[in-house]
Amino acid sequence: MSSVVTTVAAPEFRVANWLNASRPVSLARLRGKVVAVYAFQMLCPGCVSHAIPQAKQVRHTFPREDVEVLGLHTVFEHHVAMGRAALEAFIHEYRIDFPVGIDQPSDNGPVPLTMQQYQLRGTPTLLLFDRQGVLRHSILGKVHDMQVGALLAGLVAETIAQPQHPHCNDGACRI
Amino acid sequence: MSSVVTTVAAPEFRVANWLNASRPVSLARLRGKVVAVYAFQMLCPGCVSHAIPQAKQVRHTFPREDVEVLGLHTVFEHHVAMGRAALEAFIHEYRIDFPVGIDQPSDNGPVPLTMQQYQLRGTPTLLLFDRQGVLRHSILGKVHDMQVGALLAGLVAETIAQPQHPHCNDGACRI
Amino acid sequence: MSSVVTTVAAPEFRVANWLNASRPVSLARLRGKVVAVYAFQMLCPGCVSHAIPQAKQVRHTFPREDVEVLGLHTVFEHHVAMGRAALEAFIHEYRIDFPVGIDQPSDNGPVPLTMQQYQLRGTPTLLLFDRQGVLRHSILGKVHDMQVGALLAGLVAETIAQPQHPHCNDGACRI
Amino acid sequence: MSSVVTTVAAPEFRVANWLNASRPVSLARLRGKVVAVYAFQMLCPGCVSHAIPQAKQVRHTFPREDVEVLGLHTVFEHHVAMGRAALEAFIHEYRIDFPVGIDQPSDNGPVPLTMQQYQLRGTPTLLLFDRQGVLRHSILGKVHDMQVGALLAGLVAETIAQPQHPHCNDGACRI
């Protein structure tokens, strides 16, 4: 498991399409909530047997006002087998009801753009963002359900620090 | 569970392509062995969590001279998501090493031809053929591993009845 | 896994008490049936998590006219914790409904008499007897459910050889 | 699941013996830590298959300076089968290394004293105490690992309120 040391709000995901969402999901608009993102591939066995059921369990365990659950389809292999139509069928068959973003394919190689930017090394990877949008954990592989519950509740319990200049964020100050 | 009452060798599968096989698989050429066929769809959750692991366990438990294990990809929904390339990726990722046939799509509807002919009602379905090629069991849904072991060993233990006219079979008599 | 090479009917169990049985169980009286015996200790974790549930599954899978399921409580450690009253509570709480024999304690050491005679090396051990009372398999540790189903069905399928001298058995001939 | 509404430090356990402990465990001395107590019976199937493994997982997941894990053997049936020697064998075989208290038997009935005082209705029951010794949750039956992780981390994250009269506690004020 790796914890991430940063205090800067994480960059937005670069997503071609969001499924199960009425409009594009924005990390900025989720500021104030803890966000659990499961980066997965629909043909990755560990994603199917472990990460997707765990994501559902997070959705079931934590109230939505505290924790948002997202999927991110980070296809870095077998691209032809894991296109949008295939993902839609997968989402339907596995009864996934949280938003799933399709990581934007790269023009220069198999690894999609968000996966590159977040330096993910494979799937499944669990990304945990705190209420201020800072990426706090990036964990490749199987994580125990109890550990996930503990990490999320720890982030939920954090109070949001009042910014010194409340009108300044994202590198800009507004009137 | 349903047992099938017939004494006639079952019809050959109508298969567009065989994967994991150097040449098309023929039930007739498997005469003398018990054959376990798992009809599945790669995006059917019960197939992935139960039937495919069980098929591997059959391959592991019974010697190949007694029992042949086959997959049959009987796609009757989400056709665009479960084409040949997708199935090849699935077979690779799930480490499937037994032959898998792609049930021949129908021109007239979503249900492929072998699935129609065998009157399968869904996936996963386990088809068990005896040493003489007679379909003896067609079971939809989850079957307990112990039950599968028992059914297969029962078929393995059956002696092959000597045909009255040993040179006649498949509807023809040979010199 | 070890298969046992012998053609002689196995010796009777030496049992202090039979629970869940209206009278003492005798292997001789079970002649004609396949018999699956789970040697276990109620405080052996692998027995509780694996062998006892499997024994129940055998009872559920095979008809009683073909396969008899027995437990044999072979206590070789923690004797004070696994006496008859404790075993009765265990049988009640774990909803065990097949006969369970208490292996006769030895005067000379911790290993009880049947366990000695059958040269068992630990618990759980699965003993499989064929229809003629011959011990055919003695398997220490975890056995896959499919394997157990296959072994039992193989024994069930064996025809009972007609003895050449039907009045002779157990080393004696009777008028 | 039931949450407990109280702000008073919970009463000490009434325990005949503590196993796996160099001296009697006192809730008062654990003040400052979150405490997870698994009330169980060694012959209760759900305790063995679920609660004990979960208790071990809590011990594995949370550092001991934050969370203390205790067992409480609350025998209310089959008393003769679950005495101290039997429990010691159970603790040994199941590799339990956290302290386990034997709930003090009652002179007047089958339910032991701590179980009475805490009004437990069965086993397994999970009791969660906050850093100030207040019982916050009393949950009978199976609880999901993720939920336990979340509840514990939530309690761990609570800051300890400074008492208004720091020298007053337990109903007395000290100089």
Describe the structure.
4 copies of one chain form a homotetramer. The first copy, chain A, is of the alpha/beta class and 175 residues long. Helices cover 26% and strands 22% of the residues of chain A. The longest helix of chain A is centred in the N-terminal third of the chain and has 17 residues, at 45-61. Mean pLDDT of chain A is 92; it is low at 163-169 and 171-175.
Briefly, what is this?
Four copies of one chain form a homotetramer. By secondary structure, chain A is of the alpha/beta class. In chain A, 26% of the residues lie in helices and 22% in strands.
Average pLDDT over all residues of chain A = 92
**Count of β-strands of chain A:** 8
The biggest beta sheet of chain A is recorded as: 6 strands, mixed
Approximate shape of chain A: globular
Number of helical regions of chain A: 4
Low-confidence stretches of chain A: 163-169, 171-175
Oligomer: homotetramer
Radius of gyration of chain A: 16 Å
Largest interface: A-D, 19 and 19 residues
Bin the helical content of chain A: 25-40%
Pairing-aware structural class of the strands and helices of chain A? alpha/beta
What distance separates the N and C termini of chain A?
A: 41 Å
**Beta-strand share of residues of chain A:** 15-25%
- The neighbouring-strand order within the major sheet of chain A is 1-4-3-2-5-6
- What string, H for helix and E for strand, traces the elements of chain A in order? EEHEHEHEEHEE
